[in-house]
Amino acid sequence: MKYRSTRGQTDELPFMDAILTGQAPDGGLFLPSELPDFSDKLDSWRDLSYTELAFEIMSVFANDIPQDDLKEIIEKAYSTFRDDEITPLAPAGKNLILELFHGPTLAFKDVALQFLGRLFDYILEQRDLKLNILAATSGDTGSAAIYGLKDSERVHVFVMHPHNRTSKIQAMQMCTVNQKNIHNIAVEGSFDDCQGMMKDIFNQLDFKKQYDLGAVNSVNWGRLLAQTVYYFYAYFRATENNQQKLSFSVPTGNFGDIFAGYLAAKMGLPIKKLYLATNENDVLCRAFDTGIYKKGTVHHSVSPSMDIQLASNFERYLFYSCGQDATKLRSLMEEFKAKGELHYDISCELIEAKRCDTETTLATIKNYSEENDYVLDPHTATGVHVADLLAPDEQIVCLATAHSGKFPESIKLACGEVIGNHPILDALSEDDMKYQVADAHTETIKSIIVKTLEEA
Ligand SMILES: Cc1ncc(COP(=O)(O)O)c(C=O)c1O
Ligand SMILES: N[C@@H](CCOP(=O)(O)O)C(=O)O
């Protein structure tokens, strides 16, 4: 299978090259040139284990990797999960909670980053290459990337996070990994600043090439591919036959997780609705309501990983919504760059969006804890609230994107005490943290990369 850029000015690449390249050289994001239709596979896939299903789906996309090698990559990736089901479903009230947090860092990012880590090792070994990852995180991608790559001999990882704007535990998870290939940068700015600098640096093609830069954020196609698998898996576990339709509710920030669901639907999974939930950073809700995508200022919320105003993967969605016309997409992105807003074709039956503010998020955590004895993390709570609001009489699969133990500050605000913690997180210590603080300027980050690699 070949991959093309949303902006249409990059040659199509095979899977492994698209993974190594990360962000397309024309500034766009890779997508498969054609999406497969899996409708006639659903019957034979229904009873597969998670890793068997992952192989069936991924082998279509990664067809330049020999099948036995791909199987081994997948097996290794998911051997680190603490639940045999990898992404189990738990009932809570009328909903089913899709627990995506059984990987090493207790967030949904592990599902893709454990896979991407082993995939990078494989490709770099095959090609005898080295790679320097530059990542931007609002808290979870960073630690998942660090845990996915800390033992990779051919990789250095530079992670930018917004200084003092993640939860304390998220910062400790990232900054206590004392491995010489891991470099944490606390940026005096927002996640949007971090992601903006990352994209800026990837667009400086000479620098990117000179320092072998690669991506683990959802700009990398491998992230989305791995995330489509759990929509299929959850569908088979939550339904009795393939004629049934099922809806999902997805807490959303960078639009990667919900976009993986959108792709699953495009590939023939019978999805009825994708409910998009945001916190006060509701740029996507406003976009789906009005057809105007307009950046606002960042609000610091009790669900800090979703404090995002520039949703990277919205570009991939726009590409489909403008009929896969790269010229049109480019002009929309230029309109956005010039005016800070763009207008697009709003018609989308599949996605319905609502915002969930702080008060409602905290009330949802409290209610679910009291009524269902289930502690939701604050991000998951936004999705659960939206599912209850928009589909009060229907069983919805709500994506649980993180373990509650990562956000004790928010849980305490909701419940009056810290409950739902986790022994892995309790063992972290602030004293072991190592990071450098940097201002939000692209040149500062570049010089940190250069200096670190020279010294390594
Ligand atoms: C815990 C958590 N929930 C939800 C999200 C939103 O996911 P996405 O950025 O893929 O929309 C993120 C990160 O953005 C997250 O870390
Ligand atoms: N919430 C994310 C933000 C980055 O999103 P990504 O999916 O593009 O990696 C995080 O936790 O860092």
TrEMBL record:
Pathway assignment: Amino-acid biosynthesis; L-threonine biosynthesis; L-threonine from L-aspartate: step 5/5
Alphabetical keyword list: Amino-acid biosynthesis, Lyase, Pyridoxal phosphate, Threonine biosynthesis
UniProt catalytic activity: O-phospho-L-homoserine + H2O = L-threonine + phosphate
Transmembrane region(s): none
EC numbers for this chain: 4.2.3.1
One Pfam entry name: PALP
Sequence positions bearing N6-(pyridoxal phosphate)lysine: 109
Ranges of residues in domain Tryptophan synthase beta chain-like PALP: 99-401
GO molecular function, one term: threonine synthase activity
Reported cofactor(s): pyridoxal 5'-phosphate
Domain of life: Bacteria
One record GO biological process: threonine biosynthetic process
Broadest EC class assigned to this enzyme: lyase
Threonine synthase N-terminal domain sequence ranges: 2-78
Family: Belongs to the threonine synthase family.
Alphabetized NCBIfam families for the sequence: thrC
The protein's name in its UniProt record: Threonine synthase
